[in-house]
Every structure is written in structure tokens, then in C-alpha cells.
Specification:
This protein is mainly beta and 243 residues long. Helix content is 9%, strand content 55%. It has a single domain, classed as YmcC-like fold, CATH 2.40.360.
């Protein structure tokens, strides 16, 4: 896998690690700012540490950001990817992205994205990895970060999302989710009971699994992506704090 794709893809998939709430389902207004870090492992080696931060702006607007710093073998590569999604929580407790920006941290733009969601006009426009974007918006479409918060909000409401859609360059991809079971796992922040959920793009051989902790508002403690029977990468929580 290309170095930029390793770090940027890992940061994007990490986005499920969204707002932390009480153990029981609560309304989205109860979201609280937080910061969490995760170690990313590729072929048994830690290649990056990602820091995720949720911030509240005025009213119903939230900012969710990701910053990845290479470790070990990852230091051989020049990328320092960052991402930011600005979104709003609608009155019916749905996540609605307003803008998405991703920067690989190099002079090249082939891994960058700058996208705007105009819900009044019903279109999403911008540039995604050097591909011009101009698509009609349909209800529920998300960006790389907001899609996972949309999943998290549904879990907190006691639902398992069957399908979620996400913009990918100038197309929209659909993902299927399902509940796979429960497991107590050991992490750097302790032993934690988790519920395992999986996500898969229709027709893809890759499956991503999330070990979500109900006691932490379904915050993932671990994430792993497999292609058929081979683990391509995994991540594990390292630290967590909130205001």
C-alpha cells in the first residue's frame, strides 16, 4: 500500500471513533467535546498515532478532526495527514455534513480533498483527490468522517444501521453494517466489554470491524480491516479525555 494511502486511509477509517456519551442512548445534544488517541498497526508494526478531536461550535454545529503522526517505519514517509469535517445535528437527530477537508501534508494534492455540502440547493461540490466533484445530494449522504459519527449516533439510539452512504471522489458508495457479537478485550485503558460491528462496501472483499464499548457511548476500542482472511491494518485506543 502506498504510504499516503496507509496513513490517510487509516485516519479516515478511524473516524468511527466519534462523540463519547453515557452508556445509555441519549440525544445528540448531549455530545461533549473530547480527545482520543489511537495506535495504527500495519503488518504487526505501529506506523502512526492518530489524534481525534470533537469540538462544539455555536448552536447545532460540531467540528470533528483527525491528525496522524508517523511512528517507526511510518517515519520513512513524508505524509502527515489531517482531516476535518464540519457538521450539524438536525432536529430529528441526524448527522448532516457541511464541509470536509483532507490534506496529506505534502506539496502534492492527489490525496487532498475539499468538499462542500449545499443542502439547500441539494448538491455536493469541490475536489476530491484531484477529481472534480459535482453530485446531487440524497438524504443521509456523509463524508469520510461524518459517516462514522452517523453510525455512532444510530448505535446510541439503540439501532444497528443497515446501510450508510459516503461520498468517494465523484461517486457515492453504500456500506452495509451488522452486529457480530460481544467480547471483553484488554486495552491500554483497561479491560472493556465491547460489541462487535462490521462494515462492508457492497461488492468489496474488505470488511472493517469495530469493537465498540457501550460504557463509553459505543466509542470503538479497536478497529480492524481484513481482506478475505488477511488483516491489512488495525488500530487500538491509547488514551482518552473529555471536558
Amino acid at each position: 500500500m502506498h504510504s499516503a494511502r496507509i496513513l490517510t486511509s487509516l485516519a479516515a477509517m478511524f473516524a468511527v471513533c466519534g462523540p463519547v456519551l453515557a452508556a445509555n442512548a441519549v440525544p445528540a445534544e448531549a455530545l461533549r467535546p473530547f480527545e482520543a488517541s489511537y495506535a495504527w498497526n500495519w503488518r504487526g508494526m505501529t506506523v502512526a498515532i492518530s489524534t481525534l478531536k470533537l469540538e462544539h461550535r455555536d448552536g447545532d454545529t460540531w467540528v470533528y478532526s483527525s491528525k496522524s503522526e508517523p511512528r517507526g517505519l511510518g517515519r520513512l514517509f513524508s505524509e502527515r495527514p489531517t482531516q476535518q469535517s464540519i457538521m450539524r445535528m438536525t432536529e430529528d437527530q441526524r448527522v448532516q455534513p457541511l464541509s470536509y477537508d483532507a490534506v496529506a501534508g505534502t506539496s502534492a494534492t492527489k490525496r487532498d480533498a475539499h468538499v462542500k455540502f449545499d443542502w439547500a440547493q441539494g448538491r455536493v461540490t469541490g475536489v476530491y483527490e484531484d477529481v472534480p466533484v459535482d453530485l446531487p445530494l440524497k438524504p443521509g449522504v456523509q463524508d469520510d468522517l461524518s459517516v462514522q459519527i452517523a453510525m455512532l449516533v444510530q448505535l446510541q439510539q439503540g439501532k444497528t444501521p443497515e446501510n450508510l452512504s459516503m461520498i468517494d471522489k465523484n461517486t457515492i458508495r453504500d456500506y452495509r453494517y451488522r452486529r457480530e457479537g460481544e467480547e471483553k478485550i484488554t486495552t491500554p485503558i483497561g479491560q472493556i466489554d465491547t460489541v462487535i460491528y462490521s462494515s462492508q462496501h457492497v461488492g468489496s472483499p474488505r470488511v472493517t470491524r469495530f469493537w465498540c464499548a457501550p460504557a463509553y457511548g459505543y466509542l470503538p476500542m479497536r478497529v480492524e480491516q481484513k481482506r478475505i482472511d488477511s488483516v491489512e491494518w488495525s488500530m487500538e485506543i491509547q488514551s482518552f479525555k473529555r471536558d
